[in-house]
Target: Ent-kaurenoic acid oxidase
Amino acid sequence: MTETVWIMMWLPLVVMGLFVLKWLLKRVNVWIYESKLGEKRHYLPPGDLGWPFIGNMLPFLRAFKTSDPDSFIRTYITRYGHNGVYKVHMFGNPSVIVTTPETCRKVLTDDECFQPGWPKSTMELIGKKSFIGISFEEHKRLRRLTAAPVNGHEALSVYIKYIEETVVTALENWSKMGEIEFLTHVRKLTFRIIMYIFMSTESEHVMDALEREYTNLNYGVRAMAINIPGFAYHKALKARKKLVAAFQSSVTNRRNQRKQNVTTSNKKDMLDNLIDAKDENGRTLEDEEIIDVLLMYLNAGHESSGHTIMWATIFLQEHPEILQKAKEEQERIVKKRVPGQSLTLKETREMEYLSQVIDETLRVITFSLTAFREAKRDVQMNGYIIPKGWKVLTWFRDVHLDPEIYPDPKKFDPSRWEGYIPKAGTFLPFGLGSHLCPGNDLAKLEISIFLHHFLLKYRVERSNPGCQVLFLPHTRPKDNCLARITKTAP
Model:
């Protein structure tokens, strides 16, 4: 029998064997997670649990490494219809992705049915004692203790002077530096601001070192949890250890100063407030709790503000008519001001058009891809059952880019916000419900102050305006927005 005949005989068997193997492998997660549900498995949302162990992470990562990240969800909509609820296996867990305003609103606001459900790998990085890892009652308690020092009117009025001085100095320095990585410098700026507000720290050396570690930590949050050298998650775990050590030193020093009645500043920062915090029973926060809360606030606070500032300036530069309108609004505010007076909180609240620019930037970019929740019990949604213990991912991108809610959704158009009040669940840059981002007002204040001064005196000239855009861990130009910051003619 010739070799050709042998190949002809065995080839169909090999092909059939490969198909059978693929079918078996695709059934592993179904057997593990669905078989124990009994009759309920027939009421699961449509979808696909992917491959053993890795689930659907490969197509997710593949899509987000292209110029079309939304192709990931689009495959589910194409295969299973636009029902807004799909089963997947993501970040190590059987999960359900929800993609409509109604389903997102339900998941984010119904605390009887859903609780925070961040992956274990994320909690290892952000901290088990932070907002994402504690019980509902503890979460409410911490929000009460930290709300006023972060977002309160009095606190924002105090912060505004430091933020303005820091922004003015930074812009002046950047304009003399020639070509810079704009995003890198903006992130350092927002980190400096948040470190001062939270810990009264202004040491350039300390902040540069900590900011680098925060970058490593952030890159690992949405990476696959592979704790092997060379992988982002392994690097992120090492970064967390260094950050925890640095903050433990700060907490210890602050406690020792108090024991010795030593005060280094009249300003009471977030660290002071966390050390002083007591509940109704007089219980204070342990060091681990303080450190995890600081890590969470600091990481979220400077990342979101920095990226939003960069994209807002890019969009304004790309749309001269929008830039001109925003600039005229800022000039009117300055014109009404008493000469020599600094920016006030009242003035930032008069920046109606600039607020629309910021909201539109937050919508188009969708800084936070998703929020993680977990079903506390079997939950019915859109005719399907989300089993108790399954994770639920609220897919913000699909909501913000829904053409039925936002016509021509990828177009940057601040005017769409004029007189428009979004329905609950249709605009989710800071989440929704009891777990709404606790620093949202501070973030918008930072962004507003930066854009105010930028519009009045500066422009950004990108070196590579057609540069590839990356989407993980956050949307950004591959070159970190290589650009020149130039002063405009007076």
The radius of gyration is 25 Å. The chain has two domains: 1-90, 109-425+435-457. Residues 159 and 483 are 29 Å apart (CA to CA). The mean pLDDT is 87.
